[in-house]
Specification:
Layout: E1 2-8, H1 18-29, H2 34-54, E2 58-64, E3 68-75, H3 83-86, H4 96-100, H5 108-115, E4 118-124, E5 127-135
Helix pairs in contact: 1-2, 2-5
Bound molecules: adenosine-5'-diphosphate and magnesium ion.
Length: 140
């Protein structure tokens, strides 16, 4: 079930982290474990920053069902030219403005993948879609 849709404006550093912080609060309200909440927060923060510094803006959709906590990051371009390369630790096309703000280490995507339970990334020049899923309950 779709819970919430956020609008994200490109290059708006004043809002950086506010959506992922809201998502983290919602995850807490759903009684997920501390560890899962930490993974949600890390992955969503990196994905939100990527949309701010690399994309033309878009939407972030949060949906939740009995088993899964899902977040879709949808932007309107310019897309990722080479996903395999983008997934490599240290690879970054961040400009000097983003670098001076402390972004652009090239570790965001690998970190997002490491912290999520399901990870799907699709991209073309019309936009990038990143779908992340987190199991609401830790399996023993
Ligand atoms: N939403 C996006 N739109 C366009 N390019 C992106 C997006 N997310 C990531 N990228 C590309 O993938 C690269 C690697 O991303 P990431 O691992 O988060 O490192 P960083 O953000 O530090 O550059 C970015 O430098 C950028 O070229
Ligand atoms: Mg990044």
């Amino acid at each position: 079930m779709l819970i919430k849709t956020y609008e994200l404006t490109a290059d708006d550093f004043t809002q950086a982290g506010s959506i992922s912080s809201d998502i983290r609060k919602i995850a807490k309200g759903y009684g997920m474990s501390q560890e899962t909440i930490r993974r949600v927060a890390v992955a969503c923060y990196e994905a939100e920053i990527n949309m701010i510094i690399h994309s033309h803006g878009g939407q972030i959709e949060l949906s939740i069902d009995d088993e899964w906590f899902n977040i879709a990051f949808k932007d309107v371009g310019p897309g990722i030219e080479n996903i395999e390369l983008a997934m490599k630790p240290g690879w970054s096309t961040a400009d000097v403005v983003a670098q001076n703000m402390g972004f652009g280490a090239g570790l965001g995507l690998p970190n997002i993948k490491k912290n999520s339970d399901t990870f799907n990334l699709f991209s073309d020049p019309n936009g990038t879609l990143l779908q992340l899923g987190f199991k609401r309950k830790d399996t023993l």
